[in-house]
Amino acid sequence: MRYIKLFENFDEGFVLPNHRNSNDERFTIERVKIFSKREIEEIGNFLGDNVNKIETNLLTSIGFWMPYKDRKSTKKYISIDKFKDEWFLLRDYPHYYECDQMYGLLNCLKSLLPK
Length: 115
Hints:
The protein has two helices and six strands. It has helices at about 35-45, 100-110, and strands spanning about 15, 55, 60-65, 75-85, 85-90, 95-100. Strands 1-6-5-4-3-2 form a six-stranded antiparallel β-sheet, covered by helices on one side. It is globular, with a radius of gyration of 14 Å.
């Protein structure tokens, strides 16, 4: 039972851990994967007018500027890395969200978007 990882909200598919464990096997450089064109399009379609352009870095990391949830005048930078077994690591400095599957990633983005 010690290997089961519980999410803050399991139905949402993402978690904001209390701290980043640098020994976490899921998020090592050896497990980095390339985003497919379909995944980038799905994220772009989901974000819609909230972002102008999604930037890619060797297709293993994508990033974009989006408005703060509570303020429309300033923006923050969000970056997402993809790893094996459909794990995504979303950085919303100073926070890191661990997202399981595309469903969890989109739910995490939904929680960060302004209404």
